[in-house]
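Worked Example 4.2. Read the sequence first, then its structure tokens.
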Amino acid sequence: PAAPTRREGRVPSRAFVVRAATGERIEVPADGAYHVVGRSVTSELTVGGNGNISRRHAELAVLADGLHVRDAGSANGSFVGNRRLAAGTEAAVGPGESFRLADEVFRYEPA
């Protein structure tokens, strides 16, 4: 897949995704690299307690234009807006906006 287009702007020093159902805050390293999120304890960002989320569900990267969500071939999909991302494709989520992994909603909160 093509690298995301980086727009001018400041990358936040810290960033979180907040699990809507529980309020759990998961820190996403703000280093410009992609980090695997999934239910497996071997994922860099672990989301437990939901069997609908794949072991390696998606990849998240904090860039200057927002949080990039890239589907990793998940069984139940990654969604930005109402659009399901095809495996290997990505979309940016802005501050305060939500995305979905399977049936779980998350909100992006840069710090």
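Now turn to a second chain, presented in exactly the same format:
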Amino acid sequence: YSSASQSVSVSGGGHVTVSIKLAGVVGAATGSIKGSVTQKSTTMPVVAATITLSNGLAAETDLAGGFGFPVVSNGPYTLTVSALNYVTQSVSVTVRGGHVTNVSVALVHA
């Protein structure tokens, strides 16, 4: 689904009901991102690194340093990788419909 947000103000003691309709983003308008995070000096996987996309999606690397975003809308993004004791790194990626965008990031110790 595409993301959506709604601002709401509630006065003391009041309540508000908000309905948000999400639009599906499947098919030619979406692609995916698959990648890996390694330690630059050893090429060993970095486990539990946090990967965030500029659209708000987030993932964490697995035991092999791998991560993925299976459904991402087409377009350019900034992908940021952070992990404890490593220097945070950002890279630009462009997602194309029906394609897998592969990303490899090598982190340096802080």
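Notes for the reader: The mean pLDDT is 89. The beta strands are 30-39, 50-53, 58-60, 66-73, 75-82, 89-95, 100-107.
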